[in-house]
Design goal:
Number of domains: 1
Number of strands: 11
Number of helices: 5
CATH class: Alpha Beta
Strand content: 25-35%
Largest sheet: 6 strands, mixed
Strand order of the largest sheet: 2-5-6-8-9-11
CATH topology: Trna Endonuclease, Chain: A, domain 1
Structural class: alpha+beta
Distance between the termini: 31 Å
Shape: globular
CATH architecture: 3-Layer(aba) Sandwich
Length: 199
């Protein structure tokens, strides 16, 4: 994805009247983003955490209105580079993370994360927030949480352009599929807060 300063990028999407609350917990075909949205909604419903999907900053240039409830964005462009996907508060801690999916069975390509996003995660850590990646290997049906510390350490110690799935298995945290919540990543955050956050 490009983040051109002022360079237009066409985006075509239909305006929706539904929201994440209409997603079913039973929907096994849901994307990682959809499952995280439902999970975060559940956390809010039980007053456990307040973590939200960040809106993508775009400037809409052209919209077609075939009818009142069917607006179609014909042209838009990114106004500024987005940072990460999610942020919020849990147990007195600021939480900030990026969520990615890959169909690869062997590795996660680092070019899926933009340099400014890595810098953002690094800065959150520097200011005592908790930042991380959630990466789903869709073909393997495995989802991992990888702390920013582990990500940066890997990038400093190797010139490889991808992170092997074995690194996620050894250095990350496997998030087991659940029912409610679907992706209980706060269980891992509890471990990090309990003393593992510094490494």
């Amino acid at each position: 994805m490009n983040y051109p300063n002022g360079i237009k990028k066409n985006i075509t999407t239909k305006a929706k009247s539904t929201n994440d609350s209409n997603l079913s917990h039973k929907n096994r075909g849901m994307t990682l983003e959809g499952e995280l949205n439902v999970t975060n909604e559940y956390y809010r419903d039980i007053d456990k955490a307040y973590i939200y999907k960040k809106p993508t900053p775009i400037k809409i240039v052209k919209v077609d209105y075939p009818s009142r409830d069917k607006a179609v964005i014909k042209e838009a462009y990114f106004t500024i580079p987005s940072t990460t996907d999610y942020n919020g508060l849990y147990n007195g801690y600021y939480i900030d993370f990026e969520a990615k999916e890959t169909i690869s069975k062997t590795s996660f390509a680092l070019n899926n994360i933009h340099p400014h996003q890595i810098e953002h995660l690094k800065n959150i850590n520097k200011h005592n927030g908790i930042s991380f990646l959630i990466v789903r290997f869709t073909t393997l049906n495995m989802t991992f949480l990888l702390t920013t510390e582990k990500l940066l350490k890997y990038m400093e110690e190797t010139s490889k352009k991808s992170i092997p799935v074995d690194f996620f298995k050894q250095e990350g945290y496997l998030i087991k599929d659940g029912y409610t919540p679907r992706i209980d990543y706060l269980k891992i955050i509890d471990e990090l807060i309990g003393g593992k956050h510094n490494g």
